[in-house]
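User: These chains co-purify. Model them together.
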Amino acid sequence: MEINGVPIDDTFAEAFSMHMNRTIITAYDEDWARTTALETTGFATSVIMTPSEAGIEYILKPDETPDGRPGVRVIFATGSKDGIREQLLARLGQCVLTSPTACAYDDTPDVAETYPVGKMIAMFGDGHQVKKGPIDGRTLWLLPRMSGTFVIQESFGRTKGVAGGNIIYFCKDVESGMASGKAGVKAIEKVEGAYTPFPGGLVGSGSKPSSRYKVLHASTNERYCPTMKGIVPDTFVPKDCDFVVEIVINGLTEKAVAEATKAAILEVCKHPGVIRISAGNFGGALGKYKIHLHELGL
Amino acid sequence: MTVLLSLKQVPNIPIEADSITPTAFAGKTLAQIGKLVVMQGRNSCELREFFEITGESADSVEETEIVIRGDLRKVKQIGKGMNGGRIRIEGDVGMHLGAEMIAGRITVTGSVDAYAGAEMSGGNIQIEGNAGDYLCAGYRGSPDGMKGGRVFIAGNVGNEMALHMRKGFIAVKGNVGAMAATRMKGGSIIVCGELGPRACIEATKGMLFALGKVSSLPPTFKYSGSSEREFTGYYIRYLKSRRPDFLQSDISPSEKWAKFIGDFAEAESKMEIYTRLVLNSHLAS
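Assistant: Joint model of the two components:
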């Protein structure tokens, strides 16, 4: 299979089940909503060593948000159920409450369990917090702060999502890799239900789930390292490739991850210098989901 | 399934028809419905004496819809304490409509008399005309007025609306009379028209959004700044989604709202009144 002359490997991405929450962050303008969302989803690339995998899922127009202001939808993912509650408490409390004009509303579909995170954060109001509703399906807490009033939904939900969808692709050089990668991530932002947790959506250090050092769970995957192609006999890196990009895609459903994978491939293949597209897996032994590149309807 | 009640003639003495509820009608034949009790003064009467009863009854409350036609201004307590189902009134109707309502939906194409939705705790009332005094109020001696539910009035409302209100939501498209939200202690109210004098006297908690002109507020309310408000858009959007006809024009999220807090004559003073600064700059000081 080829797209715009770029070969697509007949392989699959192996993805896993994670606990997830989707939250809407609104603010007085779109730029500030995005700034707040980026802060709130910071330090959340991979559960290998961050407490969550988080990212921006979708940019909302003012008429699509609960309070009629510009908004950004973000998703948080954790390995444990309780991790969601802890992460929401820390991130919404420290990154949304502290961001002038920003407010937070739960928007998790198919909720399995809810946590009274908003009620707890509202205690920052020190007795001045006010509970309102339910109105329009939500119970809200309003608390005074320096920029006005912080509005947060009382409860935030948890659902099961899909993490670890990916494409790994080989490029001629840094320029072609970064330009195509950034464009691929932009394309994923237009797919509802999916997000990219890594810096700017791009992974610069794809890993294997083992290490020669006992203290590490993961280490660099030398088979994808262009600088090692001369000495790694089973390298995946083609001869003319000096830059390898991975885009890790998480989402609320397998379908959303597959759609985002398709959008990224179609976008990446438009760019010159992209040599071949593949995906990372563990032979299918570990993950619950297999996203086959040739079954995406490309 | 719809049961249709047509008033035979306007009664000379008002009747109290609290048996007209989907709960009372569900699972009964039309003949059985006709034998439900209504009071006229001290006399116990049957519903069929006043109404032609046609249509088809349903087994469950949720499937039951009651449509009532005629000049019902002397018919009181329709839907009192109703707990599910639907009532549709085509025309004007008398006092205590939907009083103590728990759940369900009442729609009225005309106007309602006093005490509509009094002490209701749930459900939804939509009135296309005007509402009289004491809309959603508490009765004399009651500590609580409205305790939940949603009420939308497309016309004007009389005096002492939402007296003792504790929870719930009221939206009024038109003007509201004097002493609205007296002793309010929770819930939310949106008044799109003009808010009458002495609103929120002795109120201790709750929110009132005045989208129109407010001539004056009680002196025991303090001005607490003018700014964009993060949550006003939430309430406006909710109102717009339910009744887009209530808003004459769009209200921008950047609209400035003057906040007043009180009543400082009370031990607790957490009642918040928000008025649009552009229409009410005379209050902001």
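The radius of gyration of chain A is 20 Å.
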